[in-house]
Design a protein that fits this description.
The protein has one domain: Porin (Beta Barrel). The protein is elongated, with a radius of gyration of 22 Å. The longest helix is centred in the N-terminal third of the chain and has 15 residues. It is mainly beta. It has 1 helix and 8 strands; from the N terminus they run H-E-E-E-E-E-E-E-E. Strands 1-2-3-4-5-6-7-8 form an 8-stranded antiparallel barrel. Helix content is 9%, strand content 57%.
């Protein structure tokens, strides 16, 4: 009888423990990226660009930039619609955050239409996009959120800056 009372009390105590509350935090990140054609920064075969940077509050991270779609290039403005998969992996191994970005990429001076542009890489560009969380592991498992990003490329290098909020489970 005494065992049953102790077991019932233990089960009630466990039931009373509140579940971990979701926490909404600011996501501020900046990455130096390249096309991965130089030995110093090899990218995965599916990546358009990759890099290293920092995610405030989470630490050092790597980034992978994959183009999912590139449509509606306007020859007058040299701008197009783009959808990007942006993957952030914490170098500590604590987690990976996957974002889908949709926005507009523009090529100043119509650089993407210049002779030789299809054979070269790194023509100047600027992507202005909004992002949503589409996946995560580790500390980012079950995360949701959204924000904005800006990416500039020229030559073999560029910089991406992301800002928004995420809710961690």
């Amino acid at each position: 009888m005494q065992r049953r009372v102790l077991l019932a009390a233990a089960l009630l105590a466990l039931a009373a423990v509140p579940a971990a509350a979701a926490q909404t935090v600011s996501l501020e990140a900046s990455f130096q990226e390249g096309f991965g054609r130089a030995v110093a920064h090899p990218c995965s075969p599916t990546a358009f660009a990759c890099g290293r940077g920092e995610v405030e509050g989470f630490g050092a991270a790597t980034s992978t930039f994959e183009i999912l779609s590139f449509t509606n290039l306007d020859p007058e403005t040299s701008c197009a619609d783009a959808t990007i998969r942006y993957t952030i992996t914490l170098t500590s191994g604590a987690g990976t955050l996957v974002l889908t970005e949709t926005g507009v990429v523009c090529f100043p001076g119509k650089s993407t239409l210049a002779p030789g542009s299809l054979k070269s890489f790194g023509n100047p560009s600027r992507l202005t996009a909004t992002w949503t969380v589409t996946g995560g592991t580790g500390v980012f498992a079950g995360a949701s959120g959204s924000g904005s990003s800006t990416t500039h490329f020229a030559g073999d290098g560029g910089q991406s800056t992301l800002s928004g909020t995420i809710t961690l489970s």
